[in-house]
Design a protein that fits this description.
The complex is a heterodimer of chains A (431) and B (277).
Chain A (H helix, E strand, L loop, with lengths): L1 E8 L5 H10 L3 H9 L4 E9 L2 E8 L2 H13 L8 H5 L1 E4 H12 L11 H15 L5 H20 L9 H13 L7 E4 L3 H12 L5 E5 L2 H10 L3 E4 L3 H5 L4 E4 L10 H10 L5 E5 L16 E5 H68 L4 H28 L7 H10 L15
Helix pairs in contact in A: 5-7, 5-13, 7-13, 8-9, 8-13, 13-14
Chain B lengths: L1 H25 L2 H29 L7 H22 L6 H17 L6 E2 L6 H36 L12 H33 L8 H22 L5 H23 L11 E2 L2
Antiparallel strand pairs in B: 1-2
The chains are: A alpha/beta (431), B mainly alpha (277).
Amino acid sequence: MNLLLCGVNHKTAPVALREKLACLIPDVAHAYDHLKSWPEVSESLLYTTCNRVEVMCVSEAPDGAAARVREFFARHPEIAPGDLDESFYVHRDREAVQHFFRVAASLDSMVVGEPQILGQVKKAYREAAMHHATGPILNRLVHKAFSVAKRVRGETGIGDHAVSVSYAAIAMAKKIFGDLAGKNVLLLGAGEMAELALEHLKGQGAGKITVANRTLERGVALARRFHGEAVSLEELPEQLLFADILISSTGAGDLILTRDQVKGVMRRRKQRPLFLIDIAVPRDLDPDINDLDNVYLYNIDDLNEVVQQGWQHRRHEATKAERLVAAETLKFLLWLETLEVYPTIIALKDKAEAICRAELKKTLNQLGPLTEEQRQALEVLTASVTQKLLHDPIIFLKRNRRPRNPHQELDLVRRLFHLDPDRNGGIPEND
Amino acid sequence: MTNFFLYLTLIAYFGATGLWLLFFLAQRQGYYRAGAWVMAGGLACHTLVLIQRAWAAGALPAATFGETLLLFAWALVAAFLVLIWRYPIKILGTLVAPLAALMVSGSLILPARQGVVSPLLQGFWLTVHICLTLTGYAALALAGLGGILYLIQERQIKSKRFGFFHRRLPSLSQLDNLNYWCLTIGFPLLTGGIISGSLYAQHTLGRFWSWDPKEILTIIAWLIYAVLLHERLTVGWRGRRAALLAICGFLVLVCTFVGANLWLSGYHSFARFIQAP
């Protein structure tokens, strides 16, 4: 029995190819019908994220199964078989488990540590379970992967740092205000990045939103989108009294707000902290504003710097996460190995039971008529003798697994109890 | 027996220091919670020690520098535990726990009382004076320690260079609220302590005010806090200035507590509290 993971991801395949492959999946029921019809594959899980299309399966004949998956991928009419040569990868056993854990923990993503991946894998697993494509091994693997992802999130700081400018702005605002709920936002000018930041701020429960724009119409339209209010640029100092966060991205050629203006406003707002974000180039806000107490000014370069540090931090934390994944992979493989001993244990128990039954039958015939209680006592006696006798060999099988030669004990026990009658049970004759 | 509990207290405070340092470095909530429980256990032992000593002496044990340190350490830990229960600024523990541990060690190292406590140091009003002053000190000390954290965090945000502390320290507004909260509690307590002390002085010595170094330093600290509180409420001083003033006030309080007892002499000095046997 082998674990097999094959597919393509952003490192091996261009987006055009991934898109085409992802098209195979929307009809999940159809895809699983296909996967389940292969005799080589006993359990399977199919998942796509923004950056990958992968199939995880349990198979007795891994080579055949890998070829089947590849064939399945090549079925797409626009894909030439040659397209997959470079990009199609096949991982087995240890690599497969490790790869799957890394995907779930978002270590294999383009943006390391992004939180969406786990949700996508969870959704794929639900679908697989709905189509009865998974079995005991994949079920356990997937649940382990979820717990690994959870541990990575909790025990490393992999998702802690912002890796985009708008998130960096939010992260800084949180370091200043703590909680962003109810904080008023003033938007100067409009732009893609400013709107993105506004969207995030809204998500954090920001309070009143005011838009000041040179052309009022544009401002009104934007304000309506965010359920805010539009004002003209002339009202800026007055509006600054009520704002906590200001995002500026006008196309103006010179400064819109000077140090002295802000200084006057700060006195009037009783020094309530003010966070100014200047993402315009050329800058809208006087850089000297940052010298004022309780005013924090960040321009686009500062935010980019925060993003750079975020990346660095994530890379650093990712190495910790890799260690965790490696350890968990090992644990899973150990569990997988113990699976191999179960058939032997069952055979052992069956054999003991058969002997019990046969001997009991013989004895009962010889003893003549017995009361029901006596008969039961005999049955209990034989059952408990065999149970106690088998207890130690079973424990031995479960625990004494040598990593170097895991089959040695298994073989020994099978030979000792003669569990394979058709095999020459004795010592290997001559070698 | 009290020494057994005292050692237990000391071990607990050092243990909490270790746990909270681990929390500071590794940022795992488990360490923080464990630290809080160890600290609370330490406080319970500490309370037992104080009760036993007060019982034996018939008054609050505050006649020597060591005894007063022990009392102050208790007040600081109690104030901190109340604070983090209401207002979880977890990282402050990394400063408070070692401070408490050092003060308890100090009380163990400093010479024990020899002789009889002056009758001046017994009586209800004096107990009130000591309690109010020390709890006031504790709250204001927390404001000062919070101020240090504020300055570190503000420096990082202003200069846009994020070091080791940036991620580990709470937000500026939380630290500023801590300053306000501790100030509004500590200042009335300190005021009450000064008033009750001067009333007691009038009662026993016949004068409200003696211009003793400890009194002068305390009134300076009181003025600093009065200015800070006033400006906070009227003009809205906050942030860096509030943090700086809280640290200044705290430094003056340290001088009052340590300096005035060890280097300056006045009727408030501990040396005067003991009558030779």
